[in-house]
Amino acid sequence: MYDVQGKVAVITGAASGFGKLLAQRLVAKGCRVVLGDINDKAGEALAQAINHEHPHHAMFQHCDVTQPSDIRLLFDQAVTAYGQADVMVNNAGIPGVGDFFDARSPAATMDAWNRVVDINLRAVLYGTQYAVHHWMERKRSGVVVNVSSASAFVLLPFSPVYAATKAAVQHFTSNCLPLSKKDIRVNAVAPFFSKTALVTNALEQDPALVPLVGSLPMVAPDLVVDAFMRCIEDEKLRGKTLSVLPRDGVQIYRPVYPKL
Ligand SMILES: NC(=O)c1ccc[n+]([C@@H]2O[C@H](COP(=O)([O-])OP(=O)(O)OC[C@H]3O[C@@H](n4cnc5c(N)ncnc54)[C@H](O)[C@@H]3O)[C@@H](O)[C@H]2O)c1
Predict the structure, then answer these.
(1) Is 93 near ligand 1, meaning CB less than 6 Å away?
(2) What's the pTM value of the predicted model, to 2 decimals?
(3) How far is Cα 47 from Cα 246, in angstroms, rounded to an integer?
(4) I want to staple 31 with a disulfide (CB 3.0 to 4.6 A). Which of 4, 68, 208, 245 is the partner?
(5) 51-63: per-residue pLDDT in tens?
């Protein structure tokens, strides 16, 4: 079991939802956290609230994950402020609301769907690569948790670009398994719908989604955070994705690969 006590975790998209809950969970176990988000107000407030209860355990750094320099700065802040960076959580994500195939929809513009790809996929690839380079150069161990989604393996036709980014994150993570030889673990969490700001905002922005999503069972955000913690703490889970589903709870996702 990997002990998070005394470790330092870097979390993107940490001002709300899973990122915020994970930060609180890690700090309760004695881990220090470096919080990155574009929502400076909420991020600063979270760091302040954590430090009030657990002095010197959290800091906030503005980080727009579409900017590689912001990701570098966030990760480097952990080393500057706390002397080390042990865990990298690539969590920031956006839903990509609107009809990709309706030429009049704002979601159909190249800018709109590029943004979904940049935040949900490109930033995850870069965040993983930057952390891994850091640990390999120093011959240190490390843990990456990437955030995929159940839409990586369950169809989500009303948000095909989102689903494609999350499937790519899952598969990228599986292909990081050889890093475990260098004591670097890369895992992913793939939750079904969960009532965070991402879902409530998407339903507000696109009321057509309400009949499709509103009736679905959701998973509790705390159960999703259990899966994040398992990825960090369970050293046997190298390269694995943990799905978080309404009926089955947290399970290792087992993709079916053809025999060649
Ligand atoms: N809630 C769900 O149903 C669900 C299901 C599966 C996967 N996910 C994934 O979980 C992750 C966290 O989402 P959440 O549900 O906690 O939503 P959330 O909206 O509560 O949190 C996402 C955070 O990311 C931040 N963010 C957005 N764009 C950013 C950027 N460019 N740079 C840095 N930060 C940025 C937001 O400000 C927000 O604080 C996302 O990757 C999301 O795709 C969510």
Answers:
(1) yes
(2) 0.98
(3) 31
(4) 4
(5) 999 999 999 999 9
- Can you give 47-90 as a three-state secondary structure string? HHHHHHHCCCCEEEEECCCCCHHHHHHHHHHHHHHHCCCCEEEE
Q: Specify the ligand 1 atom closest to the Cα of 95.
A: 43
In this structure, the number of other CB atoms found within 10 A of the CB of residue 51 comes to 15
List pLDDT tens digits, range 104-129: 999 999 999 999 999 999 999 999 99
Predicted confidence (pLDDT) per residue in 57-82, tens digit: 999 999 999 999 999 999 999 999 99
Mind listing the domains of the chain with CATH numbers? 8-245 (3.40.50.720)
Residue 214 has pLDDT above 90, yes or no: no
* CB distance 48 to 128 below 8 Å: no
- The answer to whether the CB of 71 is under 6 A from ligand 1 is no
Helix (H, G, I), strand (E, B) or coil at 9: strand
Report the residue among 60, 145, 196, 219 best suited for mutation to probe ligand 1: largest number of ligand atoms under 8 A from its CB: 196
Q: How far apart are CA 177 and CA 184, in angstroms?
A: 9
Active-site choice (82, 130, 162, 253) = 162
